[in-house]
Amino acid sequence: MLTNLNKILSDARKGGYAIAQFNFSDLEVAQGIAEGASEMGSSVIFGASEKAIEYAGIENLVDIVKNLSEQFSQIPMALHLDHGKTFEICQKAIEAGFTSVMVDGSKHPFEENIKLTRKVVEFAKGKDISVEGELGMVADLKKLEIDKDAIVFPTGEQAREFIEKTGVDALAVGLGTAHGLPLPDERIHFAVLKEVADAVSAPLVLHGGSNLPTFDVKKAVKMGVCKVNVDTELRQAFTGAIRKDLKDKATLDPREYLGDAREAIKQAVIRKIKEINGEH
Ligand code: 13P
């Protein structure tokens, strides 16, 4: 069943659990995600970034997830734009069939971020599309290496005002985690999370969800994180499986190594869902 974030996340904060967003840009990764989530009986969010859209073509990404949602009809699934930087890309995703978008105005000043985000919320209104906004900053690995002080943490008051003025359905909060392979001092700033979680009741989103200590992920979920974004751990699983096959087997058949990589994605998805929510 293809649905939006609201339906998937509606009970998450009260229930103290989170749903994983797994990013994809091709068929095999998407199939592995669906198979893993289905085996766990868990709802799942497919994340597609602007780069994934450029790579695969927006219609192909939509068709892949639509087909999977019919094949695995017992599992609620959402197709979510990850880090849409402009109104235009959010509009394009919604018109193409995405059920949810993230508008990332975090590089803009606070008021500009509110303006851009509200514009997307207004466009999405009445279309059964959910919108995630971002406050603070999820660091980019390379930029963070240059300037660690560039991380800006949001306050509870900013989060409350942002949600009130924009009407977003979910809020990504810059908590000190980064996209990509782990940084030496990357960690979740729990004091920031507590302040924001105390101030707002909306589902909170943790970006940079790969390779964090399991204890920290579970603690963040108990504190109000309802959506954990994962990309790098799937890349590691997929690429690792292909590397191994190409080293060990004299194969010319992409179905052999892509099939093994798809299975590696399925196992990584199962591991991650267990990490986030225990066994259920
Ligand atoms: P990772 O690179 O840590 O998996 O984070 C992915 C992410 O947050 C996508 O929005």
Automatic annotation (TrEMBL):
Q: Which Pfam family is an annotated match for this chain, by its short name?
A: F_bP_aldolase
Q: Which residues bind Zn(2+) 2?
A: 104, 134
Binding residues annotated for dihydroxyacetone phosphate, in chain numbering:
180, 208-210, 229-232
Q: Which UniProt keywords apply?
A: Metal-binding, Zinc
Q: Active-site positions, per UniProt?
A: 82 (proton donor)
User: What Gene Ontology molecular-function terms does this entry list?
Assistant: aldehyde-lyase activity; zinc ion binding
One GO biological process term is: carbohydrate metabolic process
Q: What is this protein called?
A: Tagatose-bisphosphate aldolase
- Tell me yes or no: is Zinc among this UniProt entry's keywords: yes
NCBIfam families (UniProt xref)? cbbA
Q: How is the cofactor bound?
A: Binds 2 Zn(2+) ions per subunit. One is catalytic and the other provides a structural contribution.
Q: Which domain of life is it from?
A: Bacteria
Indicate yes or no for the key word Cytoplasm: no
Q: What does the entry list as the binding residues for Zn(2+) 1?
A: 83, 179, 207
| Obligatory cofactor(s) | Zn(2+)
